[in-house]
Amino acid sequence: MSSLVRAPPLLFPATARHTATVIFIHGLGDTGHGWASAVENWRRRQRLDEVKFILPHAPNIPITCNGGFRMPGWYDIHTIDGNVESLRKHEDEPGIRLSQAYFHDLIQKEIDAGIPSDRIVIGGFSQGGAMSLFAGLTAKVKLAGIVALSSYLLLSLKFADIVAEAGNVNKDTPIFMAHGDLDRVVHTELGKKSYQMLKELGYNAELKIYEGMQHSACLEELDDIEAFLKERLPPLGGNDGDGKPEL
């Protein structure tokens, strides 16, 4: 898997001076384009003008629960059957670690470009939300926040040891978790268990359950994400001196 071919992420430059970045990670079988409409909606409201959005594309990898056929994925999944424990069995740690390194590299590139780590949020949906939790909480730099939608905690049986080895820099970083109460793909109970585990480990997590929502997103949830991003990445004001947005 070290020879994976990765397409460049989909980028939405800040419309004002670039002072913050959101990396948002799609789920299994999707691409970064799947969340482009949500980003475009947030940009139209002009509440996150200083934020650059990065929407990565997962490489095509064999997925066991898809009969071994290739599809966009951040790591292999053995079974998706609605069982609360199925996703936690036979976890693809090498694949998870490879994606973790990729997201840490995206974070570092933003830092190298002049964006402070505490002006960076990482988030995602489903498999992407699981990766945002894992990559965000194991990052060795302090982030502004983490968003995990319809997702769960990866490598949960050894997670406490993993974050301790990484330095646990983001122990108090705000985490916004969200789940539909009718989710039978990443079961709602698994989302709740993941939230409870994070709270027991002392993390600054909140979980919101959306009534009537399945394994998807809804307008109320998207509004709540926007509010979280606005709170964590408030505008700093100013521009780049020539009236043009920075990339």
UniProtKB/TrEMBL annotation:
Name of this protein: Acyl-protein thioesterase 1
InterPro entries: AB_hydrolase_fold (IPR029058), LYPA1-2/EST-like (IPR050565), PLipase/COase/thioEstase (IPR003140)
Entry-linked Pfam families: Abhydrolase_2 (PF02230)
Family, per entry: Belongs to the AB hydrolase superfamily. AB hydrolase 2 family.
Catalysed reaction equations from the record: S-hexadecanoyl-L-cysteinyl-[protein] + H2O = L-cysteinyl-[protein] + hexadecanoate + H(+)
UniProt keyword terms in alphabetical order: Fatty acid metabolism, Hydrolase, Lipid metabolism, Serine esterase
Function: Hydrolyzes fatty acids from S-acylated cysteine residues in proteins with a strong preference for palmitoylated G-alpha proteins over other acyl substrates. Mediates the deacylation of G-alpha proteins such as GPA1 in vivo, but has weak or no activity toward palmitoylated Ras proteins. Has weak lysophospholipase activity in vitro; however such activity may not exist in vivo.
EC number(s) given by UniProt: 3.1.2.22
Superkingdom of the organism of origin: Eukaryota
Phospholipase/carboxylesterase/thioesterase domain ranges (all copies): 15-230
